[in-house]
Amino acid sequence: MKFIESLKNVWKIEELRNRIIVTLGLLLVYRFGTQVTLPGVDAAQLAALGDKTSTGLLGLLSQFTGGAFSRASVFALGIMPYISASIVVQLMGIAIPYLQKLQKEGASGQKKVNQITRWLTIAICLLQAPGYLASLPSLGVPQSAFLLGTGPLFYFSSVSILVTGCIFAMWLGEKITDKGIGNGISLLIMVGIIATLPQSFIQNAATRLEGNNVMLILFELVIWFVIILVTIMLVMAVRKIAVQYARRTASGGYEKSAMAGSRQYIPLKLNASGVMPIIFAQAIMFVPGMIGGTDLLKDSSVGAWLVTNLGPASMFGFWYNVVFALLIIVFTYFYTAITVPTNKMADDLKRSGGFIPGIRPGSETSEYLDKIMSQITLPGSIFLALIAVFPAFIVKLMDVQAGWALFFGGTSLLIMVGVAIDTMQQVNSYLLNRHYDGLMKTGKNRKASA
């Protein structure tokens, strides 16, 4: 098979082989760290914590950290504080001129932005770490599990270790990006998600086997592969905008003939915002339950309705997912508007001597690109919302266990698919540069041209 042959070719390229080995080694270090429990905590008494964080939003958070959250590990915060800091810095870049200036300064400016993100990550860790430690008793960890008590010394040492663990995970991600293959931060999250997949599947399969429903297991796997294919289509779908570049002549002028110029495309992604709308929407979905549980509303019918229908425990409920889907659509438009700079695209196109046939360069090009983005964002946002709420359909219609249902859509599946495609594209580029067949369909055998 060509795919098997391509895999063999990967090991023939020394640089690519070394990068893959480095990546696997650093990922192994991260996975080892997720198994190390905080000093002063008895790992044998954390069963209740695992049960409490196996479903709902806490289950999703534990999934992103590869189970470290439910083990009170030194990597319990995972890489999520860094992700939160990156989002905050990106949003602040819209309103703060200093950050806008840095973003336009190229590599030097990006270096300063990265440094700001790192410091903000530490600040977020210093807020989240004490909150995590304080929540352990309410999540079912008995007082006897704290071998040295829960005094100031425990909090100081544990907060220091949790902050250090997050910084170390961030360093691992950056080293994978520099020395390995793929985006390091994204790979850490993906590996954490995949780590919980076998256990979730086995638990669900065991329940089905008890009821002699072997065919139902196969049917679930078929649905899972179909939703993965649909997610791949969403991640890779683009709208190609034809662009014409005028060719410079020997006399210094430009030939504007459509036949003489080179024709290219601007690929506008159907889902330009990635998983960010789902992350924003999930953060907002914490609010209704918190409001319903306040002293002002907890004894009222409104508060009871908010907690029952929009609280974390109703993650697979009807009203929760209706509001969740609407928020995803709204945030998809919002995030696409701030991350797809149609004005800059139009200016860059004009400076490089390019134009969209039938559209004047400048403001008209910007308005045209903005119009196209608005048109493709609507189906993209609806598609994204459907994938995000699909686990709820699986739970209600097929009685799938919550842990296994999370892999049928939402942030977990989008991250897995997106990171896998990005990594394969990087491997593909190495293979094509060495005149080998690529791993993906777009790859072409270039031996003949060598």
Describe what you observe in this structure:
A three-stranded antiparallel sheet has the order 4-1-5. A two-stranded antiparallel sheet has the order 2-3. The two termini are 23 Å apart. A hairpin with a 5-residue loop joins strand 2 and strand 3 (254-255). It is built from 19 helices and five strands. The protein has helices at 2-10, 14-33, 47-52, 56-64, 80-95, 97-103, 107-135, 152-179, 184-195, 197-210, 214-236, 276-284, 286-292, 301-310, 318-339, 342-351, 363-398, 402-405, 410-433; strands at 238-245, 247-248, 254-255, 262-269, 354-355. Helices cover 66% and strands 5% of the residues.
Key terms for this structure?
single chain, 450 residues, mainly alpha, three-stranded antiparallel sheet, two-stranded antiparallel sheet, disordered C terminus
Task: Average the pLDDT over all residues and give the rounded result.
Answer: 81
Low-pLDDT runs of 5+ residues are: 256-262, 443-450
Ends apart, CA distance between termini:
23 Å
**What is the β-strand count?**
5
How large is the share of residues in beta strands? under 5%
Short description:
The protein is mainly alpha-helical and 450 residues long.
Secondary structure elements and pairings:
Layout (H helix, E strand, L loop, with lengths): L1 H9 L3 H20 L13 H6 L3 H9 L15 H16 L1 H7 L3 H29 L16 H28 L4 H12 L1 H14 L3 H23 L1 E8 L1 E2 L5 E2 L6 E8 L6 H9 L1 H7 L8 H10 L7 H22 L2 H10 L2 E2 L7 H36 L3 H4 L4 H24 L17
Antiparallel strand pairs: 1-4, 1-5, 2-3
Helix pairs in contact: 2-8, 2-9, 5-6, 5-7, 6-7, 7-8, 8-9, 9-19, 11-19, 12-15, 13-14, 15-17, 16-17
